């Protein structure tokens, strides 16, 4: 099957809805992820990438997200007391149709949904989209110093491939080493089953906010 970059379209699960990201989403996205603890682990280039005000965040977001070369999404809750609330963002990008490679990244969540079903279902929806579109390998990566993100990626069932040294500059000018993980199409049925099994633990229970740090 020849890989084809998917057209931007909503993806709906049981707990979250992924909507193609637009500038109109950015004020609500800032309310969700505009917290120092989100950037502390390396998101947006690390702590120096943090933008405290909505205006600063919108200006930063215009240059940070893969608007042209990827499919960025806003993540909105379905069901429960917080239905409709935007709680994060994620992107499917870096499409190489010839080699059937894609990349899930630019992912951040409101700390109040860390450890909930939000990341599990968001990844399930994006991985399903990638493999249904003919891609054979999906890369997921994190700053090597970000233990939380590395554990979350490994918990999805992704395979750790190694560390790419001096991969990209952080916002403070230092150089980031990236921990590289991937899921290939031959592994997808097992990975998908594992993600669905994890989601089954929350069956019938909407996402509940946790206290911020």
TrEMBL record:
<keyword id="KW-0808">Transferase</keyword>
<dbReference type="Pfam" id="PF13302">
    <property type="entry name" value="Acetyltransf_3"/>
</dbReference>
<dbReference type="GO" id="GO:0016747">
    <property type="term" value="F:acyltransferase activity, transferring groups other than amino-acyl groups"/>
</dbReference>
<dbReference type="InterPro" id="IPR016181">
    <property type="entry name" value="Acyl_CoA_acyltransferase"/>
</dbReference>
<feature type="domain" description="N-acetyltransferase">
    <location>
        <begin position="16"/>
        <end position="180"/>
    </location>
</feature>
<dbReference type="InterPro" id="IPR000182">
    <property type="entry name" value="GNAT_dom"/>
</dbReference>
<protein>
    <submittedName>
        <fullName>GNAT family N-acetyltransferase</fullName>
    </submittedName>
</protein>
